[in-house]
User: Which sequence fits this backbone?
């Protein structure tokens, strides 16, 4: 799989996305990647895919595996990969219907479509792929492009419950980028489930970038409810145990929050990843509902090399 000249970018907005960190990440990657010696690339938590879309522009891989616990997300990737023209056609219809409306009419359409999305997901078998899955993917993209802050959040019943965002002219269908993303995904293996299931794809010269839901910063109410079950501290510990287990078989690079932004005495990650190297990168994030407390913070990059 040769590095592509296609300038594909993430087609979804994603909370905690890594686009702003890509230049800093370039300094953190293993030398084997920079020397094009890495054969397999794996992301157990693909999210919006910013790192994936950037890496394939510059590096050659024989195998790429993108996974996420969010079945709707992976269904959307599969739909863009396999049926991008159908996705584009449906999104154009949604865009043409939605954009001319005032806010009240937009609310009617947004919440009706959100209800249909939640009803559909209860009926879909995500182990198969049908026309219904393409329609579901189009709704996913529509909701992502029009909801508040591009969040994906579920309630206790597993229903998407993010309210409408107040955008004047949201881009619902970026045909050029969706087409480019489809090309970029052409030979990618897409899986949905727990991060540990990606272990079976590890081969000689594998690089794994791990970007889990972040541990909340001490004293803040950070978002962790990415799916019905929280990615809590028990999950963070299980992830660290898994990283240690596979550390001898692959190059690992993990991202997470830096608790020292709010509590200089919090050594959670130093203790959890005591055998790994830990560095910091700068990010512009909102860590508080108070606008005065938004700005540049640091995040952690944790590596086994």
Assistant:
């Amino acid at each position: 799989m040769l590095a592509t000249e296609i300038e594909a970018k993430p087609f979804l907005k994603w909370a905690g996305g890594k686009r702003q960190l890509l230049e800093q990440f370039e300094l953190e990657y293993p030398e084997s990647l920079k020397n094009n010696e890495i054969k397999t690339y794996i992301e157990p938590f693909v999210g919006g895919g910013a790192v994936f879309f950037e890496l394939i522009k510059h590096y050659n891989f024989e195998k790429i595996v993108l996974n996420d616990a969010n079945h709707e997300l992976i269904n959307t990737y599969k739909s863009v990969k396999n049926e991008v023209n159908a996705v584009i056609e449906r999104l154009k219809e949604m865009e043409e219907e939605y954009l001319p409306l005032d806010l009240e009419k937009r609310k009617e359409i947004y919440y009706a479509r959100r209800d249909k999305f939640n009803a559909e997901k209860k009926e879909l078998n995500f182990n198969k792929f049908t026309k219904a899955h393409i329609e579901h993917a189009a709704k996913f993209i529509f909701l992502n492009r029009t909801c508040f802050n591009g969040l994906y959040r579920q309630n206790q019943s597993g229903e998407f419950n993010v309210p409408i965002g107040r955008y004047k002219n949201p881009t619902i269908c970026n045909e050029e980028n969706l087409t480019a993303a489809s090309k970029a995904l052409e030979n990618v293996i897409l899986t949905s489930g727990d991060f540990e299931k990606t272990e079976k794809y590890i081969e000689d010269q594998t690089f794994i970038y791990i970007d889990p839901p972040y541990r909340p910063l001490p004293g803040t109410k950070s978002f962790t409810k990415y799916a019905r079950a929280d990615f809590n501290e028990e999950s963070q510990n299980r992830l660290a145990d898994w990283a240690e287990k596979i550390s001898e078989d692959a190059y690992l690079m993990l991202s997470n929050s830096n608790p020292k932004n709010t509590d200089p005495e919090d050594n959670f990650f130093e203790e959890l990843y005591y055998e790994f190297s830990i560095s910091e990168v700068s990010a512009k994030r909102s860590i508080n509902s108070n606008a005065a407390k938004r700005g540049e913070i640091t995040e952690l990059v944790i590596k086994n090399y």
